[in-house]
Amino acid sequence: MNYLELAEQVSLFGGALLLFLETGALFGLFVPGGDSLVLALGVLAGWGRLEPLTLWLALATGTMLGQWSGYYWGVRLGPSLFRKVPPEKLERARRFLARSGRWAVLAAPFVPVVRTLTPFLMGAGGTPWRAYFFWSAAAAWIWTGSLVAMGYHATARVLGWLGL
Q: Is the dihedral of CA 31, 34, 35, 41 positive or negative?
């Protein structure tokens, strides 16, 4: 394995790890950059340095595992945090989650800080795990896929304009 191949493998693993940390370990509150990272890796795929499908699989997997980890910590830590919140506000939040939770989960990856907090809040708010796991997986695939595709196709377009 040469150094270029090693760098390509590290970028797959590193990208997946950073997305895991951003969504699952509240790392994204301090270093929001998932969008830029996924776009940049999509550009590398457009240059032929990474396989786009493998990249998408790695990034979506890292994001899903991070979301599920954040959900777990929300389930574990949420009740103790919510003891200080007035019951009527908790009930309003639960009604919102029941009514609009899936849309919040689908939209969350596209908004930097929201992407980090939503998994924790969904777990803490008592969202059923099966529904959360399904919608968060769909969101991870849509978010990473759309950004990888944008980076990939933008690179192809620019290289075409340059005649390369």
A: positive
The gap between the terminal CA atoms of the chain, to the nearest Å, is 27
Residue 72 maps to a domain: yes
Q: What is the pLDDT of residues 42-94, one digit of tens each?
A: 988 988 888 999 999 999 999 999 999 999 999 998 888 777 777 787 777 77
pLDDT at 53 (0 to 100): 95
Residue 25 has pLDDT above 70, yes or no: yes
Please tell me the total count of domains within the chain: 1
The token duo for 7 is 């760098």
Residue 1 lies in a domain: no
Domain assignment of residue 2, yes or no: no
CA angle 71, 76, 78 (to 5 degrees): 80
CA distance 64 to 137: 6
Half-sphere exposure of 24 (CA within 13 A, CB side): 18
Residue 118, C-beta contacts closer than 8 angstroms, at least 6 positions apart: 67, 70, 104, 105, 108
Res 48: pLDDT: 86
